[in-house]
Amino acid sequence: MQRFIVFEGIDASGKETQAKLLSSFFTKKGFEVLLTHEPIYEEPIGKVIKSNLEKKISLSSETVAMLYAADRYEHYLKIKKALEENKIVISDRYKYSNMAYQGANGVDPKWIEEIEKFSLDPDIVFYIRVKPESTMKRRKEKDLYEENLEFQKKVFDIYEELSKKYKFIAIDGEKSIEEIHRDIINYF
To answer: How much is the pTM?
Structure first.
């Protein structure tokens, strides 16, 4: 079974938690799973992205969008290999995050779609839908994007549009972790 599963949503919506739970679910059923995330902070491009998020450097939104796309290509090579090995791939974030976050930073959405057009489309995207006001209470330490409620509202609005355009499966992220997980595994 080849499956490429992506979790999307605003910061602190619970994507990472749900990706880990789904990975565990499939592993217990005997499947090999590659659990991954974007950006890949341990790699050279990811390190530059992280420096920007931590406000150690300041880059234009277009440059950041291109860095995320470049990071994604490196990520794609790992995803492709895992899929060829018949593993299930579960990713915390993917190209839609670039569309949402850099779109909220004022980058032309058509331009972002253009630089992302060669990215592999996932089989299924779970959009963990949580209001920005809720997520602001979830994290104490916040990065460049997480600290700004108005920015998170813009990102949320873009995710709402992306969800319709790309037919994401919207999951109510305001529920308990266990309820969200049950909602997700109903699709498998």
So the answer is: 0.91
